[in-house]
Design brief:
The chain is of the alpha/beta class and 138 residues long. The protein has a single domain, classed as 3-Layer(aba) Sandwich (Rossmann fold). Helices cover 43% and strands 19% of the residues. Strand 4 (82-86), helix 4 and strand 5 form a beta-alpha-beta unit. The two termini are 20 Å apart.
Length: 138
């Protein structure tokens, strides 16, 4: 029986960051979908139901935080774990975090290796042992 690769959504308005993260995740065997702003990501997440989302904090149209609140309130994405990355070291309060599924905050610049470890850990928590099988051991 073949297990489908986990789908990860990358949301960032900086194309070069999306490109680098996408490349690293696809090399690990993940299916990747991308969006360049919070509203586009919200709409796409309702269709794709990703296993995990990596998003920037500051974006046009809908900020990363606003998008996370909407995703948390949606039946489709209510439990989707999120990694929030930020260039300015934003801190969120416990109340703000409770309104979202943000499981990890990372500051830019971050290492791709560190992100891969966080993604693997969060998918393992969310999906049990199948998450590890969903990625290649490249």
């Amino acid at each position: 029986m073949s297990i489908r690769p986990k789908t990860i959504m990358i949301v960032d308005d900086e194309a070069h960051i999306v490109h680098i993260i996408r490349y690293k995740l696809e090399r690990e065997g993940y299916n990747v979908v991308t969006a360049s702003d919070g509203q586009e990501a919200y709409d796409l997440a309702q269709l794709e139901d990703p296993d995990l989302i990596v998003t920037d904090f500051q974006m046009p149209v809908l900020s990363g935080y606003e998008m996370c609140v909407k995703l948390h309130d949606s039946d489709v994405t209510a439990d989707t774990p999120i990694v929030m990355v930020t260039a300015r070291g934003h801190k969120l309060s416990a109340k703000e975090l409770a309104e979202t599924n943000i499981r990890q905050m990372m500051c830019k610049p971050f290492s791709a290796r560190e992100l891969l470890v966080v993604v693997g850990e969060l998918l393992n928590e969310a999906g049990g042992d199948e998450a590890i099988e969903g990625a290649n051991a490249a």
